[in-house]
Write a structure and sequence with these properties.
Blueprint lengths: L1 E2 L6 H11 L9 E6 L5 H11 L3 E6 L5 H4 L1 H6 L19 H6 L7
Parallel strand pairs: 1-2, 2-3
Length: 108
């Protein structure tokens, strides 16, 4: 979950993910890449991660851009499946069952 200056919404997005994901998967982790935010994004994620070890923060000291924030979670993730979503809440995780229902179908 790449984030840049998402302090206004990151708490809600992460709490929503924590509420929805257990309905569909037994184990998961949420990796948040704070891409050099100058607001309270990292502090909010750190606070939530202190209460829930399924949240991990990767932090860039300076803003490197969206493209630089994408490879890190994929490389750091554990597990068989990786789901990518932006940190601004533009995607509804309640759509996850549609994705999971297709996991055994051929990609093309």
């Amino acid at each position: 979950m790449p984030c840049y200056k998402r302090g206004r919404v990151v708490d809600e997005v992460l709490r929503g993910a924590l509420a929805v994901l257990p309905e569909f998967v037994d184990e998961f982790e949420i990796l948040v890449v704070d891409d050099g935010s100058t607001d309270d994004t990292a502090a909010i994620v750190e606070r939530l991660a202190a209460d829930d070890d399924r949240i991990r923060l990767v932090r860039h000291e300076t803003n490197r851009g969206y493209g630089a924030a994408l490879p890190q979670p994929s490389a750091a993730a554990h597990g068989e499946w990786i789901c990518f979503t932006d940190g601004d809440g533009q995607f509804n995780l309640l759509d996850l069952p549609q994705l999971l229902s297709r996991r055994n179908l051929p990609m093309w």
